[in-house]
Design a protein that fits this description.
Largest sheet of chain C: 7 strands, mixed
Helix content of chain A: 25-40%
CATH topology of the largest domain in chain C: Aldehyde Oxidoreductase, domain 4
Helix content of chain C: 25-40%
CATH class of the largest domain in chain C: Alpha Beta
Mean pLDDT of chain C: 96
Low-confidence stretches of chain A: none
Distance between the termini of chain C: 90 Å
Oligomer: heterotrimer
Distance between the termini of chain A: 56 Å
CATH architecture of the largest domain in chain C: 2-Layer Sandwich
Number of strands of chain C: 27
Shape of chain A: globular
Low-confidence stretches of chain C: none
Number of strands of chain A: 14
Radius of gyration of chain A: 19 Å
CATH topology of the largest domain in chain A: Enolase-like, domain 1
Order of helices and strands of chain A: EHEHEEEHHHHHEEEEEEEEEHHH
Largest interface: B-C, 50 and 53 residues
Strand order of the largest sheet of chain C: 3-5-1-12-9-10-11
Strand content of chain A: 15-25%
CATH superfamily of the largest domain in chain C: Aldehyde oxidase/xanthine dehydrogenase, molybdopterin binding domain
Structural class of chain A: alpha+beta
Largest sheet of chain A: 5 strands, antiparallel
Strand content of chain C: 15-25%
Chains: A alpha+beta (292), B alpha+beta (157), C alpha+beta (766)
Mean pLDDT of chain A: 96
Number of helices of chain A: 10
Number of domains of chain C: 3
Shape of chain C: globular
Number of domains of chain A: 3
Structural class of chain C: alpha+beta
């Protein structure tokens, strides 16, 4: 790798100042699993790498209904901590990211801020209405994840800002999530298509009261298929509804052809996986009522 | 500009002057002469460079050496010297899980980390733990057998 | 007391302990003090003229000690080969994306990389020929304008871009087609796949004034490397020393002198050792992966399943230089013919030049492509006449003493047993469940022969060493099989025998660890050497124990009288008392090649399968109709390998080869775009099977002993990779009703085909 200067700020303010001072020549270091590869391939040529690991307070995890996730929590730590059934989809996405070795280095914040079109953790976080806490040396703000990703490898992070925490509000009772990822083989790959569904049911456990569908690798960024979501509300999630919703989600996707798959195949898969993910999420939501 | 780091490798402390862009893999092989950790893809795809970092398997090609401070690092040399997983290593030998052997250190470290957490892993748990290690020789069948053989009291499926 | 009986035992290998401890030294780990680091500059164009090369800035970079281009080499230097058409470095023209154009040696790898950036080359890009069928067409531009002037092997039929046209003719296919009850004709295609050994290719050369030129390299074939290094240094072969380091996988890729001659020249010019490594991206860019193929197969069959005619025409994309293509084309001829009785056979294999990397030897070269074409075709034939694919095979298989299509007589034919056991293992006749399917594939393969040499010796400490001239590439053939054979021949425990691989100065000439030959040939040489050594030991003991040597036994490190075991002498004492000091025996193995009918073949450099092995694979798959994903549920692979020297090692070869075949069947693909540029040059986008992608593979050992190898062994290393593409494609067809005739059969191909099949047909226009 081409040489760079390495900085170890001990506060967010210090990191923020460094990022501002060096501008485009600086990159923050989280897990490094994507960054090091980009540097080796010459896609990024930073003069300054700003480590976030010496900043305290970015690795906490609180889970008491809502989730408060430190941006530097590793993907493994997130996956091993997520026991609530309602967020099973997030746990599944954590387990599907890369390999165990990569999960032990990669971070939740890194996966979000890298903003890959196929970012594994983003569909479930979108389904769970995650908010992001961003800090700089001058201010702190909270923004929804939905809207933060603004293009392939691009976020709405302001110069000098650091993502410090991710907040996930408590999901309603009788909620289930499911994450499905299609790859070219059964492990260690970027997604061809990935889907997360979140279904909340009424007290009878039959009618859908809330729905979220997150799609990745079929648009410049992962996104929510909102028309498909709307079409689920108030329904009993019967077969015809699901097929209709899957078709809607398919129409909202904008897949491209690349080395992994053709646009045509991705489009087909969106429909197949959306239907399956909804079924699975609904099943889990029903299970969350304490019995079927 | 060189920086000074302190690494805990196989229970020994090493104080080194390195360049910030050196990876742990480079430092292990080129500065510490620990050749047991293998190199090839340099992008986390093959797992040949797997070491234990704070008891967790990681790709040392994706970890800057400067970031590898502060937690114990275990390489295949350390695993061998430690001896706790001698049964696992012996199982690899006995079961024919080693052909060219280039992937073996990585597989042993990932397997050891698995067994440390979970002495009686299921088939799925073994598959998950080893999916980040590629073998091009064995077809994996005997590797799985060897891991199962090393788990005390577990009957192979 | 009995002799040590090691044959058939699951004895751990000599090198396994060191590998498990991380102590084993591979080429990648080998260092020489004061070494420089080499790097290769490669063509960014698939086809271009080189207008100028300016190396001045590279040469003057601090830390650069040698820069090499074609200008520094003897004019017109071409490397040895079946067709001598390939330069060491491109001079006036580049013919594939990644072709080496320059090389440097510098004090650090970083400086070497920088030096490459400072070499300025003016290219004039030209259109690239990427379609071999286009390249064959009359009037196609020539990949080699000077093709006619090249030296080439006698009897090789080649013309313009066709570097080899190998044929097999038996009987009269046209007449047979006319008589057949059904004729089936289809085309099958396969993409290139890459060996992807875990350890990179790396060589360290030391060519210093007044010293023996030496190259340390992780090669499968040291004597061929020696020939090439001597060629570029302009010295006699015997004066060059090639030392093989430990090898981390090879699969045919490390047969070729991709880096040793360059490393030697860089070292010579810099007067320092030079380490030259091929990084993975370059290995994937411009290695020697498997030949892409397109095969038209037409067969005639009778209603009762008798195959009466087989016509196959294969176009094999050879890449930019002839390389191994002529030989591999010939092997494909025999594979396409298959181990069947078909009396009328017409096979043509064309090796065709294009502007791509030299496709080369990858485990079973020409094999899986041919078997895919033939064995999926035969399933289509079975389907046409409404017969079980297994039944069709059983009706047409070769049996003991039969004539194969090339006119060779086959013996030790374990084919029928392999077929029966493999299909039984997956309950072939059990009715299929929805979205599930079973498929099979069978075939035959060679045990390559040629010369192997070995030396066995008893040293002054009473230790036995068995020396061979070729390296362990990972299969266990040398460190397992040969060692066990040697121990058995001596009557000693395996632990008392050490195998040592010698460098080329030893003169232990060997045709290398390749072609499924290692256990049978190197083992045979070692066996002969050990038998002779045993005789020498017993002859000496005869005098010392005053007992006729026929009454002597050797075991547990001693020689003793069978009838009175207390009369004994340890090997150590015997060695110390030996009047000639160290006892040595050298032996060579050079088996007779198989005879065949020469009138049936033209331009076939590999005309017969010697002491052939026979094999059958059976697979059960489940296809997800929504995504097209294929899960291989069960996989049984039965191989007749003559006699099992070590079942663990045999199973290991079968399991590993099946895995590589599954990769070829479902996910591996070396991609070129339409302009001739390589696209997927990393393992992120060249997908290898992970542990999660494979079922437990059931390896079935069949034994019909041959007269070749020790204890009747036959070759094994390559055959396991021949069958998975066909077996799995056949299983997918059974599961889905859709036939896929191109590899890899990806989930995408399946899903799109199933989706299309489910849609109602568009209305017919009147």
């Amino acid at each position: 790798m081409k040489p760079f200067e390495f900085h170890e700020p001990t506060s967010v303010e210090e990191a923020s100042d460094l990022l501002l001072r060096h501008g485009k020549a600086a990159v923050p270091l989280a897990g490094g699993t994507a960054l090091l590869i980009d540097i080796r391939h010459g896609e990024i040529q930073p003069g300054h790498v700003i480590s976030l690991w010496t900043i305290p307070g970015l690795r906490d995890l609180r889970s008491n209904g809502s989730l408060h996730i430190g941006a530097l929590l590793t993907v493994t730590e997130l996956g091993e901590a997520l026991l609530a059934p309602a967020v099973e989809g997030l746990r599944e996405s954590a387990r599907s990211l890369g390999s165990w070795q990569i999960q032990n280095l990669a971070t939740v914040g890194g996966n979000i801020c890298k903003a890959s079109p196929g970012a594994d953790l983003v569909p479930p976080l979108l389904c769970l209405d995650a908010d992001l806490e961003l800090q700089s040396s001058t201010k702190r703000r909270e923004v929804p994840l939905d809207g933060f990703l603004v293009g392939p490898d691009q976020t709405a992070i302001a110069p000098g800002e650091v993502l410090t925490h991710i907040h996930v509000p408590p999901p309603p009772p009788r909620t289930g999530t499911a994450f499905l990822k299609l790859m070219r083989r059964q492990a260690l790959d970027c997604s061809i298509v990935s889907v997360c569904a979140r279904i909340s049911l009424d007290t009878d456990g039959t009618t859908c009261t809330e729905a979220r569908i997150g799609l990745a690798a079929v648009a410049p960024n992962p996104f929510r298929a909102k028309r498909a979501e709307a079409a689920l509300l108030g329904t009993r999630l019967d077969g015809e509804t699901l097929r209709h919703v899957a078709a809607l989600a398919r129409s909202e996707a904008r897949p491209i052809s690349d080395v992994r798959a053709s646009a045509e195949y991705r489009s087909l898969i969106v429909a197949a996986l959306v239907e399956r993910a909804i079924r699975l999420a609904a099943e889990r939501a029903r299970g969350a009522t304490g019995g079927k | 500009m060189p920086i000074t780091i302190s690494l805990d490798v196989n229970g020994k402390t090493h104080v080194l002057d390195i360049q910030p862009q050196e990876t742990l893999l480079q430092v292990l092989r080129e500065r510490l002469g620990l050749m047991g950790t293998k190199a090839n893809c340099e992008e986390g795809e093959c797992g040949a460079c797997t070491v234990l970092f704070d008891n967790k398997p990681v790709n040392s090609c994706l970890l800057l050496a400067v970031r590898a401070q502060g937690s114990p690092i275990v390489t295949i040399e350390g695993l061998t010297e430690d001896g706790r997983h001698a049964a696992l290593q012996a199982a690899f030998v006995q079961e024919g899980a080693i052909q060219c052997g280039y992937c073996t250190p990585g597989f042993l470290l990932s397997s050891a980390a698995l067994l440390d957490r979970n002495p009686a892993p299921t088939q799925d748990e073994i598959i998950f733990a080893l999916s980040g290690n590629i073998c091009r020789c064995t077809g994996y069948t005997k590797i799985v057998r060897a891991v199962k053989k090393a788990t005390p009291g577990v009957v192979s499926e | 007391m009995t002799n040590a009986k090691t044959i058939g035992q699951r004895t751990p290998r000599q090198d396994a302990g060191a590998k498990a401890a991380g102590r084993f030294v591979y080429g990648m780990d080998f260092q020489l003090p004061g070494q420089l680091y080499g790097a290769i500059l490669r063509s960014p164009h698939p086809h271009a003229l080189i207008r100028s090369i300016d190396t001045r800035r590279a040469q003057s970079l601090e830390g650069v000690e040698s820069v090499l281009t074609a200008k520094e080499l003897p004019a017109g230097l071409l490397m040895p080969g079946v067709v001598c058409d390939q330069p060491l470095l491109a001079s006036d023209r580049v013919r594939y994306h990644g072709e080496p154009v320059a090389a440097v040696a510098a004090r650090t790898p970083a400086v070497a990389e920088q030096a490459l950036q400072l070499i300025t080359i003016e290219y004039q890009p030209l259109p690239a020929l990427v379609d071999p069928e286009e390249a064959m067409a009359p009037g196609a531009p020539l990949v080699h304008e000077g093709w006619e002037a090249y030296q080439a092997e006698q009897g090789l039929v080649r013309e313009r871009n066709i570097c080899c046209h190998a044929t097999l003719r038996a009987g009269n296919v046209e007449a047979a087609f006319a008589q057949a009850d059904a004729v089936v004709e289809e085309t099958y295609s396969t993409e290139s796949v890459h060996q992807s050994h875990l350890e990179p290719r790396v060589a360290t050369a030391q060519v210093l004034p007044g010293q023996v030129p030496t190259v340390y390299t992780n090669t499968q074939l040291p004597y061929w490397i020696r020939t090439n290094v001597a060629h570029v240094l302009g010295v006699p072969e015997e004066t060059v020393r090639i030392v093989t380091t430990g090898i981390g996988g090879a699969f045919g890729s490390k047969l070729y002198p991709q880096i040793e001659p360059l490393a030697a020249l860089l070292s010579q010019r810099a007067r320092k050792p030079v380490r030259l490594l091929v990084p993975l991206s370059d290995e994937l860019l411009a290695g020697l992966p498997r030949h892409p193929t397109k095969t038209r197969v037409k067969s005639g069959v009778m209603r009762d399943g008798t195959l009466v005619a087989l016509q196959a025409t294969m176009v094999m994309d050879g890449g930019a230089y002839a390389g191994s293509t002529p030989e591999i084309a010939s092997v494909a001829v025999l594979c396409l013919a298959g181990p069947y009785h078909t009396p009328n056979v017409a096979i043509d294999v064309f090796g065709v030049l294009t502007h791509k990397t030299n496709f080369g030897a990858y485990r079973g070269p020409g094999g899986p492509q041919s078997v895919f074409a033939l064995e999926t075709h035969l399933d289509e034939v079975a389907s046409r006449i409404g017969m079980d694919p297994l039944e069709l095979r059983l009706r047409n298989l070769l049996d003991e003493g039969d004539l194969a299509p090339n006119g060779q007589i086959v013996t030790a034919v374990g084919l029928r047993e392999a077929v029966e056991r493999a299909t039984r293992a997956i309950d072939w006749h059990e009715p299929a469940r929805p979205n599930h399917g079973k498929g099979l594939s069978l075939g035959w393969w060679t045990t390559t022969l040629q010369l192997s040499s070995s030396e066995a010796l008893l040293d002054e400490n009473g230790k036995v060493f068995v020396r061979v001239g070729t390296q362990e590439i990972g299969t266990g053939a040398i460190m397992g099989g040969v060692r066990q054979i040697a121990a058995e021949a001596l009557g000693l425990d395996v632990d008392d025998v050490m195998v040592e691989v010698q460098d080329t100065l030893s003169g232990l000439w060997d045709w290398g660890s390749q072609g499924s030959r290692t256990v049978s040939n190197v083992g045979r040489a070692a066996q002969l050497a050990c038998q002779e050594l045993r005789l020498k030991i017993l002859t000496l003991a005869e005098q010392m124990l005053e007992t006729n040597r026929d009454l002597l036994e050797m075991a547990e490190g001693c020689v003793f009288a069978k009838e009175s075991p207390r009369d004994r002498i340890s090997l150590k004492e015997l060695a110390q008392r030996s009047p000639e000091g160290v006892l040595r025996s050298r032996a060579e193995s050079r088996p007779e090649p198989a005879t065949y009918d020469k009138t049936r073949l033209t331009s076939c450099l590999y005309p017969a399968f010697h002491h052939p092995s026979f094999h059958c694979h059976a697979a059960e798959v489940e296809v997800d109709p929504g995504t097209g994903e294929v899960r291989v549920l069960r996989y049984a692979a039965a191989h007749d390998i003559g006699h099992a020297i070590n079942p663990t090692l045999i199973e290991g070869q079968i399991e590993g080869g099946v895995m590589q075949g599954i990769g070829m069947a479902l996910m591996e693909e070396v991609l070129y775009d339409s302009k001739g540029f390589r696209t997927n040059t990393n393992w992120t986008d060249y997908k290898l099977p992970t542990i999660a992608d494979l079922p437990e593979i059931e390896a079935i050992i069949v034994e019909h002993p041959s007269t070749l190898g020790p204890h009747g062994s036959k070759g094994l290393g390559e055959s396991p990779v021949l069958h998975p593409p066909a077996a799995i494609a056949n299983a997918i067809a059974a599961a889905t009703g859709e036939r896929f005739r191109s590899l890899p059969v990806t989930a995408e191909k399946i899903a799109l085909a199933l989706d299309k099949a489910a849609k109602p047909a568009p209305p017919q226009r009147r």
